[in-house]
Structures are given as C-alpha cells and as structure tokens.
Structure to design on (876 residues):
C-alpha cells in the first residue's frame, strides 16, 4: 500500500471508493469551480450575480439551450471518440486536429460536388459523413501506428499533429479553397442546404441531438457487447494481461484509434455543416481540447457525455452573451473551463487518496 | 513496568484497512537472545504487525515498548534509532551501487565523502563474524540473491540493530544458503540480539526458532516454545483444521510427447541472454519440475513456451507442431494452458469483474461470441458453473477481481486455463510458473491436487517452482535450472535433495 509523507502531510492510497463518492466529488468540483470564478469576477469588480444569471439563462431559455446543444455537438462527438481511445489508455490529445480533418474532408466533398458534381444532391451529406469519419480516423491512425510499431509516445504525436491540421486548413482557405466571390475574405463558399446537418425538422440542433444519441448508443454497444470493447478495456487496464490473453494489441490499438479519430472527424463535419455552414480558419475554438475535459467529467460513459458536452457548449454560448451584455471578456469562460478541469482532477486525486495532516491516528 | 529482558513488547495492536481488520488486538514480544518465529498463512497479518514495529504503518490502537520504554514509532527512521532493522521480502538495494555504498546510504556519521578503506575493513570484519564472504566493493547487481540478503542484514547490523525482523527470508535461497542464513541467525541470537523470523514454512520454524507465535486472520492464536510443539500442531493452529501433507501421485506411464525444446536461446528483458541452450521434453501424463533459484531463466522459459518471449535460436515443438515464435494466441490454440507467475500482474485484470477474468481468453470463441458480439448470457451461465467447480469464493461473478484473496485469484486462473472453456477438453500442456507462491495452505493444496488431477487426465505439465518440497512432491522428473541452462535432470525416485541444492547454487557436480 503506497503511503507518502512530506512536511507532516500524509497521503495514503484508498483501497476502494464508492460510486456515490465518485459522483459527489464531480458535483463538488463543479461547484467549487463556480465559486472560484465568482471570486475572480468579484475581484475584477464585475457583477457576479448578473454574470451567473446570464450563465443560468443559457440552460433554461429554450432558444439558448438549442444553441448550447448545437455548440456542444462537436464536443460530444469528439468526446465519444476520446472515450474509446482513453478506454484503452491511448492518450489521444489530438481530437482538435482530427476535427480539422473532418472539416477538410466534409468541405472537400462539398466543393467537389459544387464544381464537378457527379453525385445526386441527396448523397452528398452521407458522402461527407463517410469522408470526414475516414479523414479524422486516419489522422488518429498515424500516431497509433507509430505507437504500435515504434513505441512512439502518442501524447506528443497527437498533440503536434493538431498544429499541422489547423495550419493546413489555413493554407486551403487562404489558397485554393477560398471563395472566388467572397471579396477576398478567408472563407470557403457557403454550403448548399443539402450539405447541412438539418435533416431533422430543418434544425441543426435537433439533428445534432439525434446524431449524438445514435452515436452514443453505438459507442455504448461497442463498450458493452462487442469483443472490441472488451479488448479495449483489457488493454487499458493491464497491458501485460492483454498480451497474455492473446489479444492482438496493435490491431485493437489501430482499430480503436480509427474509431476515435473518426468520431472527432464527424465533430469537424458538425462544425462546418451544422454550426458555421462553411469552412474558415480557426473554425474550432478548441472543441478538441474541451473534449478532453468532458471525457473526464463524464468518466468515459457515453450517455453522460451528451449532457456534459451540452453543459460545455452552454458555457461557450454563455461566454458570448457575457461579452455582449456585461462586457466580460470571453476568456472568463475559458478560465471557468480550466478551473472546472483543475477541480475535477483534484477531486479524482482525493477520491483515490486519503490525506491526513500531522500524526493522524497513530501509536500514542 | 515491563522488565528489560524484553527487547520488544507490543500490546493490543489494532490495525484496520478498509474492509479488513489486519491486526486485531495483537500481543507480541521478543526476548533478548531469542529467535522468535512469526508463523501464519498469507494475509494472517504477520507482515502488517512487523511493518507497524518498523514504522511503515501506524497502529490504530495499542502500545509498543522497546527495552521496557514506551515508544512512538512514526517512521523507519525512528525504528532504526531504536535499534530495529528489517529485511524485506524483496530487497531494497540499489543494484548499480557497491555493497559499501548500499550499507552506508543515509548514515549521517559517514559524511559526504566515503572513507572506503576504513569502511571496507569494518564491513569485511562484520561479515566474516557471521561466516559470510562478501566483497564490499562489488556492485550489488553482481551478487546472488543470498548475498543480497547478507547485504541487507549487514545494513541493519552496521546500524547496530539489536532487533532484527526478517520477512520470509528463505523464499529466494537455495537449501545451502538457507542453512548458512540459519547459522548466522543463531549467531546473532547468541550475541544477545533478538530476531523475528516471519515465515509460513513449518520446518523452518522447527529448525531455527526458540519460540513461535502463530497468527490467523489478524489474531494471535498461540505463542509457544518451539521445543513444546510439533509441525502438525502448528499447522493446525495456522489453518484451524488438520492439513494433509502428502499427496498421492499415482504411478502412470507417460504418453506421447507434447512439448520439446531444442537448444533454445532467449534474452531477458534487460537484453542479456537468459536461456542458453535449453533442451527438454514433456509427455502426456507427466510432470516435469524445474527447480532453481529465482532469476535463473525460469520466467523466460515459461514465456518462450507460451509465446510471450522471442526465441532467438533453437526450436520449440508443441504436439509435434513447430511453435517457435508463434503468437500467444496460436500457442493457446495448440492446447497450451499457462498459469503465470504473479497472476495479478501478468494474468488477471484487477479492475474487471470475476466473470471477465474467467473469460479473458475464451471470450473470443464460439459459443461465447460470434465475429463481433459477445454473448454475455452464455458467459454468465458458464461462469456460475466454473465458480462452483473450482470452489472460487466470491460474493458474485460480478465482483471486482481485486477484492478476491490470493487463493481465490489462483483458483480463478485455474478455472480459466484448465476448465476447457478454451478449445474444449483437457489442455495437452500446462505451464505452471510458481503456481502456489504466496498462497495459503488450503489454496496450495487445491492447486497441487488440481495439477495432479490433470496429470491423470492426460496433460503434460511443466512445473516451475522455487519450493523444492513442492517439486519433489509433484514431479515425475526434475530438471535443475541454473544460469539459463538445465544443469541436471533426475527421475523423481532418484532425486537427491543435496545434489539438487548444489546444482541450484551453480556448483559443478562431479559424475558420481
């Protein structure tokens, strides 16, 4: 049993912790994060009550809630992907890059159709879905292959590849993919309506919600009922035992990474054909990084990922209204996000370790 | 007021861990000049009690007196100051440092720059007073397990420890090294030191101790003078019921060959040659025991056969099929079962459920799954049957595996490997690496009986063990491994424990 002492503070590993304790720490973590943000806002002499009122309004006003769902969509899809990767201890920090590749592939299909058009319009969106899934998946497959064959640390490769992807989007938009009639703005042509995610009630939020639920269900089934899901779990928990059990680790690693990146790629598609309706540089304000936080918050549970993603989507919406109404910088929301993550990690630590000060219970 | 005859008195020690009462009002004492054996099964609370004495754990209740004075021991530092030294089961030495450096590490009076000459002299003298020949300037990694243990003891003695705690010190030693250790322990007692000897081996208690305290389930069952008791009685105290010591190995004529190794070479994880030309064969209905001191290639041997380690030269045939460098899965499918060492590390996933671990291999075969989906219904039904058949004690098949005791973990492994859920039927070859290490008496008996039963049902078994008694009890043939080679082979009935011991230690034995 691990136990460390330093400066009279003793840290001891807990053998067990209950599910209730687990939920409670998460709730407390979020509560503390809000309290900390309240402190910061107060210190900046801003109206804390009104600011929190604005944030709350996002989640109780139907119009804003639909916005929150829409903004949460790329986060949810990317997080579903991360849940697969994290389940097998493949630390994919590259959802952001995979999102960008999803956008590139989706936009590419639209442009190809608009300029050369040999597909019926009806098949454009399905083709975009497939293309963005593959593009995101392949972008994640590369670090997985490097890890499987050469034992390259995936944290570094996935992270660095984010920049490549984002810069490649810049190149495309400032170069060949710029809208010729766009007055020189760095934008692609706007997507025609058949290329938009609006097949449910003509509304991207409803469409996105349905898509999230379908994909969460698929991930749930993978985890619970497939051989792949079992293998992911075994690899994540004990690599030596996985080898011993005869699991083909490189195969599972690559397949898992493909699915992980593919879902993030769909997240990219949801940005260009759900939120923005075209491709532009910096189209993702860090959805892929937020997804990492959401993955922790939801404890990799595909069903919890949907509300957790909507919560963070709502914070983004709230950030914009705070800026508009109270002139609070948008960064405040990023601070909130960061603090929530910090507290969640701290809570995770407290859940697993018992901390005592001074002598504790000892021989006296 | 306790008298000074006692070096240590522990009164009413209670230590709770989540869900377990590891020490339940334990009284224990140690007299000057005695060897006091602390006997009990794994999980009886022996090591916990001693960790409290050494300051690694804090007791929840109770008092400790050292030389009659009540003390608080907050850390090993406090313990060392009180003259308490502990030699742990796994050594805590720095392999790349010399013996001297390891011994003086952390000592304030030595200063920043080592006066090697003087220290070397001191250590040499100290060592030779116990009959040890050890080179103080040797690097620790060059030493044998027995010598490493001597370094650990020297470390404690150099700090003038009067109270020595040895935690299962013989588990890594050859019979000869064990005897040398016992001589040194007796010597220490004669000098007026007190030695606490933690063990679960009865014969060692009888050989070396003056008094013995038996623990079971966190409580002291009895403290007795060793001369007033006998192994059978002690075993009774230990498990709470009479134990059968000898198992019947029915004479059988071995069948067709299931395993053959031809001149097999392999590397260890550190990239040095661990197997240097192994030749062996096993037939059906036959147990080949591999005796040897841990770290002479046993694990590597098990791993090359089961496909977990690359063979760099040589050939492995399983059921006459070339299995050299086949994947673990292909080898499993040739009918090979593997009971790995340290099952929680190598063969079980602690955070998964019991049922998941039962089907850690079989989940991929019909009827338990099709190409994509797992059929949990089939798995759950079968799991209930396996739990019953292999007597696994668990609250349910959905319990997290880490909650099981060592004996039940091993039963789980046996159920998975031997029950026939993989490929159906009895495995042709069973590779069992240290299958009873760390298990309590009841579980040990269960494992041994199971292996013998499968021998009768037709399996060929490779049994790797550091427990010589176990090897002699179960094997039809015995091979001795030393430094990556099989240095001797005996038929069970011709086995000579003296010669095996010498071979294990690397002695060249002249042909008789």
């Amino acid at each position: 049993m691990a136990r460390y002492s330093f400066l009279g503070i003793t840290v001891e590993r807990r053998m067990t912790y209950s599910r209730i304790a687990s939920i409670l720490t998460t709730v407390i973590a979020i509560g503390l994060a809000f309290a900390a943000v309240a402190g910061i806002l107060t210190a900046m002499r801003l109206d804390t009550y009104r600011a929190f009122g604005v944030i709350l309004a996002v989640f109780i006003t139907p119009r804003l809630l639909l916005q929150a769902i829409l903004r949460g969509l790329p986060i949810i899809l990317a997080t579903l992907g991360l849940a697969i990767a994290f389940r097998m201890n493949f630390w994919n920090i590259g959802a952001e890059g995979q999102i960008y590749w999803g956008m590139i592939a989706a936009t590419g299909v639209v442009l190809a159709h608009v300029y050369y058009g040999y597909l019926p319009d009806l098949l454009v969106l399905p083709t975009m879905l497939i293309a963005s899934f593959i593009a995101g998946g392949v972008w994640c497959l590369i670090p997985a292959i490097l890890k499987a064959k050469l034992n390259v640390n995936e944290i570094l490769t996935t992270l660095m590849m984010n920049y490549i992807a984002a810069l490649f989007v810049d190149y495309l938009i400032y170069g060949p993919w710029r809208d010729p009639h766009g007055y020189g703005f760095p934008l692609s042509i706007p997507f025609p309506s058949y290329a938009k995610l609006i097949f449910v009630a003509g509304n991207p939020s409803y469409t996105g919600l349905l898509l999230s639920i379908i994909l969460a269900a698929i991930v749930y089934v993978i985890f619970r009922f497939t051989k792949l899901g079992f293998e992911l779990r075994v690899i994540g928990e004990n690599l030596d035992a996985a080898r011993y059990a005869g699991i083909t680790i490189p195969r599972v690693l690559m397949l898992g990474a493909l699915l992980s990146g593919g879902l993030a790629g769909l997240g990219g598609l949801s940005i260009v054909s759900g939120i923005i309706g075209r491709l532009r540089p910096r189209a993702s304000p860090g959805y892929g990084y937020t997804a990492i936080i959401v993955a922790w918050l939801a404890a990799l549970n595909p069903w919890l990922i949907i509300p957790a993603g909507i919560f963070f989507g709502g914070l983004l919406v709230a950030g914009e209204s705070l800026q508009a109404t109270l002139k609070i910088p948008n960064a405040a929301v990023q601070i909130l996000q960061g603090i929530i993550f910090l507290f969640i990690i701290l809570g995770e630590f407290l859940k697993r370790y018992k901390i005592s000060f001074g002598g504790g219970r000892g021989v006296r | 007021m306790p008298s000074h005859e006692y070096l240590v008195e522990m009164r009413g020690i209670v230590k709770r861990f989540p869900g377990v009462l590891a020490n339940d009002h334990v009284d224990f004492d140690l007299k000057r000049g005695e060897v006091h054996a602390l006997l009990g099964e794994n999980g009886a609370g022996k090591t916990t009690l001693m960790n409290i004495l050494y300051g690694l754990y804090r007791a929840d209740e109770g008092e400790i007196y050292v030389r009659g004075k009540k003390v608080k021991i907050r850390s090993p530092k406090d313990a060392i100051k009180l003259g308490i030294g502990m030699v742990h089961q796994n050594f805590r030495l720095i392999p790349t440092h010399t013996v001297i450096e390891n011994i003086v590490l952390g000592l304030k009076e030595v200063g920043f720059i080592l006066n090697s000459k003087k220290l070397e002299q001191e250590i040499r003298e100290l060592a030779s007073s116990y009959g040890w020949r050890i080179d103080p300037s040797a690097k620790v990694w060059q030493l044998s397990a027995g010598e490493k243990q001597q370094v650990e003891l020297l470390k404690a003695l150099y700090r003038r420890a009067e109270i020595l705690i040895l935690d299962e010190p013989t588990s890594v030693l050859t019979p000869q090294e064990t005897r040398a250790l016992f001589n040194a322990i007796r010597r220490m007692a004669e000098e007026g030191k007190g030695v606490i000897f933690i063990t679960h081996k009865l014969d060692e208690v009888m050989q070396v101790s003056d008094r013995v305290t038996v623990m079971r389930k966190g409580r002291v069952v009895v403290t007795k003078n060793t001369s007033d008791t006998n192994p059978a009685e002690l075993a009774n105290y230990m498990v709470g019921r009479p134990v059968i010591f000898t198992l019947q190995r029915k004479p059988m004529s071995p069948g067709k060959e299931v395993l053959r190794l031809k001149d097999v070479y392999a590397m260890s994880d550190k990239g040095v040659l661990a197997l240097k030309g192994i030749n062996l064969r096993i037939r059906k209905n036959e147990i080949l025991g591999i005796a040897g001191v841990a770290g002479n290639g046993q694990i590597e041997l098990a791993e090359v056969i089961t496909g977990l380690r690359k063979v760099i030269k040589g050939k492995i045939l399983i059921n006459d099929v070339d299995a050299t460098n086949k994947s673990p899965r292909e080898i499993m499918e040739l009918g090979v079962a593997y009971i790995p060492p340290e099952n929680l590390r190598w063969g079980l996933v602690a955070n998964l459920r019991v049922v998941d671990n039962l089907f850690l291999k079989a989940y991929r075969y019909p009827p338990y799954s099709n190409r994509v989906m797992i059929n949990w219904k089939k798995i759950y039904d079968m799991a209930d049957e396996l739990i019953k058949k292999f007597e696994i004690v668990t609250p349910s098949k959905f319990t997290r595996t880490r909650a099981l005791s060592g004996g039940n973990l091993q039963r789980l492994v046996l159920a998975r490997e031997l029950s026939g859920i993989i490929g159906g039927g009895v495995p042709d070859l069973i590779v069992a690496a240290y299958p009873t290490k760390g298990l309590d008496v009841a579980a040990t008996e269960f494992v041994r009986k199971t292996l013998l039963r499968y021998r009768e049902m037709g399996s060929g078994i490779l049994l790797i063990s550091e427990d010589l008694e176990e090897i002699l009890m179960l094997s039809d043939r015995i091979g001795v491994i030393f430094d990556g080679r099989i240095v001797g082979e005996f038929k069970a009935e011709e086995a000579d424990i003296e010669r095996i011991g010498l071979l294990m230690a690397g002695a060249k034995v002249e042909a008789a």
Q: What stands out?
A: The mean pLDDT of chain B is 89. The radius of gyration of chain B is 24 Å. The first strand of chain B starts at residue 6 and ends at 17. Chain B touches chain A through 42 residues (CB under 8 Å).
